[in-house]
Amino acid sequence: MIRSWLLPALLTLAGLLVAGGRAADGDVVTGLVLLVFFLLLAAAGSPLVFPRSVGAAEALRRGASDGRPVVYWRPGCAFCVRLRFRLGRRARRAHWVNIRRDPEGAAAVRAANGGDETVPTVLLAGRHHTNPDPAWLRDRIDGLGEDAGPPR
Predict the structure, then answer these.
(1) DSSP string covering 3-55, please?
(2) pTM for this structure?
(3) CATH number of 51-142
(4) What is the pLDDT of residues 67-85, one digit of tens each?
(5) Residue 123: which region, alpha, beta or left (left: phi > 0; alpha: psi -120 to 50)?
(6) Where are the chain's structural domains?
(7) What stretches of 25-133 show up as alpha helix (H) in DSSP?
(8) Are 96 and 58 in contact (CB under 8 A)?
């Protein structure tokens, strides 16, 4: 749990230090803008922007019953954040597994990626897709483009 909040905490601290330095130099507006920027980065790298994570076993069970994708992710991963934001509200229609909290999920990612913990890794229809194009996954979640082929 602490590890997933380390990056956001460091970004917040850096923002406070930079903003404080600017404010001390008399440039309060720039300091506030930089503080907001660092806080947005911290929020994007935090577990807060992702739907509630479930364990790998539960995600696999749910995915098998409802056909929704299982997305393995890790806090602080820029590609995971990109996927999450590009999916928008559709992200709630996937089952998210935080591999930092779930050793079984991390093992599944390593098995799918030749020993590497490369995320995001998406399990959809029994196949793993490493760092899929968000538009491709959006189409799958929407039930469109069934014959569109593998992700780019």
Answers:
(1) HHHHHHHHHHHHHHHHHHHHHHTT-HHHHHHHHHHHHHHHHHTSGGGSPPP--
(2) 0.69
(3) 3.40.30.10
(4) 999 999 998 788 998 999 8
(5) beta
(6) 2-48, 51-142
(7) 28-44, 56-66, 78-87, 103-112
(8) no
